[in-house]
Amino acid sequence: STALASRRRVSSAARTTGFPSRFQRSGHLSVPSGWPLPAVRAHLVDAGVDTGPVLAQRPVPVLPGDDEATLHERIKTEERELLVQTLAGLVAAGLPPTVVPTEESTR
Predict the structure, then answer these.
(1) For the chain, what are the domain ranges?
(2) Who has greater pLDDT, 65 or 33?
(3) CATH homologous superfamily of domain 2-95?
(4) Which residues form the Formyl transferase N-terminal domain (predicted)?
(5) Distance separating alpha carbons of residues 62 and 71, to the nearest angstrom
(6) How does pLDDT run across 74-94, given as a tens digit for each residue?
């Protein structure tokens, strides 16, 4: 499995179709996405944008005194922890990691 953490670009169709259900992405959900609180999630990547099957997700509480910067830092911390936990779960379930070159490394 290949992890894409907070990737802000759309992956090419060749990359996602060549390795179906092998890419995992973590990212955050905003309140406008339908969640009552900000949240983080990990999902498989498909040809759409944030449309792959969700593997895990959790809300990130807004605490008294939070401003945009402190909430953003908490979201990033939760996102990293969720990514590591989800990848560990996939490996424990027998899904071995696969090395796939990134677009940057093939230039």
Answers:
(1) 2-95
(2) 65
(3) Formyl transferase, N-terminal domain (3.40.50.170)
(4) 42-87
(5) 7
(6) 988 988 898 888 888 888 888
pLDDT in tens, 53-64: 778 888 888 899
Q: How many CB atoms lie within 10 A of CB 26?
A: 25
Give me the residue label for tokens 């309140």.
31
Best CA proximity match to 59, nearest among 72, 42, 75, 44:
75
Three-class secondary structure assignment of 19-78? CCCCEEEEEEECHHHCCCCCEEEEEECCCCCCCCCEEEEEECCCCCCCCHHHHHHHHHHH
φ/ψ of 25, rounded to 5, equals: -125, 145
The predicted model scores a pTM of 0.61
